[in-house]
Design a protein that fits this description.
The complex is a heterodimer of chains A (321) and B (250). With 321 residues, chain A is an all-alpha fold. In chain A, 72% of the residues lie in helices and 1% in strands. Helices cover 37% and strands 22% of the residues of chain B. The chains are: A mainly alpha (321), B alpha/beta (250).
C-alpha cells in the first residue's frame, strides 16, 4: 500500500534504521500472533454461541456422569475429540458453566483440552523428534488438570462467575453480555436461532478479542525486546530454570501447538523439566487467558486457579523430571 | 428521528477493517509473511466468517437507524474497541515486512537444531548428500542441510555448496566472516527460528547486514573450544533482491 511506504520513508528519515527495524519486527510478530489465533477465536465464539442457543441445560445434565471423579476424568480427555487452542477456551468454558456443567469439570476441561489433544501431541513429537517428551507433557498436563479439577470440587460449590453489570437473565435463561442490539424474545425458527448465534458470536468476539490483542502485544514485546542472553544464564539450574520458563510461558502468547517448537529451541540450554513446565503451564495459564478469566470469574477463583496450576506444574516438573 | 447507533457503527467499521486486512494479505500473497501457508485456508474461512458478521451488523445498523435501540452512553465504548482500532492502525500504517536480521541475536542462530539429529538418529538426507559434490540448498532441504552441516561438518569438507540467505554479523566473530541466514517458521512468525552457516570472504565488512545474497563456496571445518563447526569459503557471491517468500516453511 502506497500509504504505508510513505510513512515508512518518513519514519526512516527521522529515526535510525535499527529502531525502525525493531518497530517493524514488533509489528510483524504482533500481527502474526493475532492472525494465527484469529481462526481459533472465531471458531470458539461460534461454538460457544451454538452451545448457548441449541444445547439446553437439561441435555447437559443428562449426559454428564453423576460421580465427581468420573466427571473430572471425562473432562480431562474430552480434548481428544474436541481439540481447542488455549486462545478460545474461556468463552466456551463460561458458556458450559452457565449451562450447568459443574465448575470442577469445566476447569478440568479448560486446562487439559489445549494440551491433551491429537494436534498438540503430534506437534510436540515433531518438535522434539521423540514421543517420550510428548508423553511426559501429556501426563504432567493430565495430573495438573485432574488435581486442579478435584481441588476445585472441594473448595468451590458455586459457579464463581462474575455478575457483569450489564448482563441480565430472562426467565428462559437467555442473556446477552453487552450492549449489542438486543433480541428480546426467544427464537423458535431455525433462521431466528441462526441469527442469534451470529449476534452472540459477534458480541463475544469483541469481548474476548481485546484480550487476545493485549496478550499478543505483550508477547510480541517480550520476543522483540528481551535478549536471549538473559534467559540462557539461568538455563541449567534445576529450580530457577523452571520458574523462568513458566514466567516466559506466561508472557509470550503462542498457541499450544506452536509452543513445542519454541520450547525445543531452548533444549540445548535449559533442563527438560523446565521445558515441560513451559509446555504445560503456557497453554493453561498465560496473560491472554488470565485477563479473560479475570473478566469472567471472581477474583478469588482466578487467584486460586493461577496459584494452584503454578504450584502443581512447578512441583511436578521439579520433583519428577 | 434517525440516529446512528455509535456502538453498532464501531463494530461494523472494525469488522470491515479486519475483513479488508485479511483479504488484502491473501490476495497480495503476503499472508506468508505472518503465518505458515498451511493455515491459509483457515484464514480464508475466518475472513468469510467476519464478512458474514459484518453484513449482519450492517443490517442492525440499518434497523437502528429508524428504531433506536438501547445505546451505551458515555465513553465506555472507546475502551472496549480501542485494541481493535490500534491493531488495524498498526496493520495498515506500517508496511508488511519480513523479520530483520537484528532478531537473529535475540532468537539464537541454529538454536533449534534438535538433539536427536546430533545423536545420529534422524538424518534423512545424509546418504544423498554424501554422494553429491555440489549441495544445492533449496527451501525443501534447507533444514536438513543446515542440521547436517551443523552437527557433522567434517563429513562435508571439500564439498561445494550453493545457498541463498541474508547476512547476519555476529560482533564476536572475526571481521572477514558473516553468517548467511534464513528464518524457519513452524506455525507463525512468533516462533521464527534462524538457521545459517558461517561464511568467509575477504572484504566481509563491506557487505551490509540484512542484505540478501546468493553464494557458492567450499565447505571447510574450524574448531572452537573442542567443537567443530562449518565455514563456507565463498568462491562466488551475488546480490539478490529479497525473496518474495523469505521464510522456510517445513
Amino acid at each position: 500500500m502506497e500509504f504505508s511506504s510513505l510513512i515508512s520513508g518518513y519514519m526512516q528519515s527521522k529515526i535510525d534504521v535499527i529502531t525502525w527495524q525493531i518497530i517493524l519486527n514488533f509489528k510483524t510478530i504482533f500481527l502474526g500472533i493475532i492472525i494465527e489465533a484469529l481462526p481459533f477465536i472465531l471458531i470458539s465464539v461460534i461454538v460457544s454461541s451454538v452451545l448457548h442457543n441449541f444445547v439446553s441445560e437439561e441435555l447437559i445434565q443428562k449426559v454428564l456422569p453423576k460421580s465427581k471423579i468420573y466427571s473430572i476424568l471425562l473432562a480431562c480427555f474430552l480434548g481428544m475429540i474436541f481439540p481447542a487452542c488455549d486462545c478460545g477456551m474461556v468463552p466456551i468454558v463460561r458458556r458450559l458453566v452457565k449451562k450447568g456443567v459443574p465448575l470442577y469439570s469445566a476447569v478440568a476441561f479448560m486446562l487439559s483440552a489445549p494440551i491433551i489433544n491429537p494436534v498438540v501431541a503430534t506437534a510436540t513429537m515433531y518438535a522434539f523428534n521423540s514421543s517420550e517428551v510428548a508423553l511426559t507433557r501429556i501426563s504432567v498436563a493430565f495430573l495438573v488438570a485432574f488435581t486442579t479439577g478435584w481441588l476445585t470440587s472441594k473448595f468451590f460449590s458455586g459457579t464463581e462467575l462474575k455478575d457483569t453489570g450489564h448482563s441480565h437473565e430472562h426467565e428462559h435463561g437467555h442473556d446477552h453480555d453487552c450492549g449489542c442490539a438486543c433480541h428480546s424474545h426467544e427464537e423458535h425458527t431455525i433462521a431466528g436461532k441462526f441469527f442469534n448465534v451470529l449476534d452472540d458470536a459477534c458480541a463475544e468476539f469483541f469481548e474476548m478479542g481485546k484480550y487476545l490483542i493485549l496478550g499478543s502485544f505483550i508477547g510480541a514485546a517480550a520476543q522483540t525486546f528481551i535478549p536471549r542472553v538473559l534467559l540462557l544464564n539461568v538455563g541449567h539450574e534445576s529450580f530457577l530454570s523452571i520458574v523462568v520458563m513458566m514466567l516466559f510461558a506466561f508472557t509470550i502468547s503462542v498457541c499450544s501447538s506452536a509452543d513445542a517448537f519454541i520450547a525445543s529451541s531452548f533444549s540445548t540450554s535449559f533442563t527438560m523439566g523446565s521445558l515441560v513446565a513451559f509446555m504445560v503451564f503456557g497453554p493453561m495459564i498465560d496473560i491472554k487467558n488470565t485477563l479473560m478469566l479475570a473478566h469472567t470469574f471472581r477474583w478469588r477463583f482466578v487467584v486460586f486457579l493461577v496459584v494452584m496450576v503454578s504450584l502443581l506444574c512447578g512441583l511436578q516438573t521439579y520433583l519428577f523430571i | 428521528m434517525p440516529q446512528l447507533n455509535r456502538e453498532i457503527f464501531a463494530k461494523t467499521l472494525l469488522l470491515l477493517g479486519f475483513m479488508i486486512l485479511l483479504f488484502f494479505l491473501i490476495i497480495t500473497n503476503q499472508l506468508t509473511l505472518y503465518v505458515h501457508p498451511r493455515v491459509t485456508n483457515f484464514i480464508i474461512i475466518s475472513a468469510g466468517i467476519i464478512l458474514i458478521m459484518f453484513l449482519r451488523q450492517c443490517w442492525h445498523l440499518k434497523k437502528a437507524w429508524t428504531q433506536p435501540t438501547d445505546r451505551v452512553h458515555g465513553y465506555k465504548i472507546y475502551w472496549k474497541y480501542s485494541p481493535f482500532v490500534l491493531t488495524l492502525i498498526l496493520a495498515f500504517l506500517l508496511p508488511n515486512t519480513s523479520l530483520s536480521a537484528s532478531l537473529v541475536q535475540n532468537k539464537g542462530l541454529n538454536s533449534q537444531i534438535t538433539s536427536d539429529v546430533s545423536k545420529g538418529e534422524y538424518r534423512p538426507l545424509a546418504a544423498e548428500l554424501k554422494e553429491t559434490n555440489l549441495i544445492k540448498v533449496t527451501d525443501k532441504n534447507f533444514i536438513a542441510v543446515m542440521s547436517e552441516l551443523y552437527c557433522y561438518p567434517k563429513e562435508y569438507v571439500g564439498k561445494e555448496i550453493e545457498m541463498q540467505g541474508f547476512i547476519f554479523k555476529d560482533s564476536s566473530k572475526s571481521p572477514d566472516r558473516f553468517s548467511l541466514v534464513r528464518y524457519v517458521i513452524a506455525c507463525c512468525v512468533a516462533d521464527a527460528s534462524p538457521y545459517g552457516v558461517l561464511c568467509e570472504i575477504k572484504d566481509a565488512a563491506s557487505y551490509p547486514e540484512g542484505g540478501w545474497y546468493q553464494i557458492q563456496g567450499t565447505i571447510e571445518v574450524n574448531e572452537n573450544q573442542g567443537k567443530s563447526f562449518p565455514v563456507i569459503k565463498i568462491t562466488w557471491i551475488k546480490s539478490i533482491s529479497p525473496l518474495a517468500v523469505p521464510y522456510v516453511f517445513p
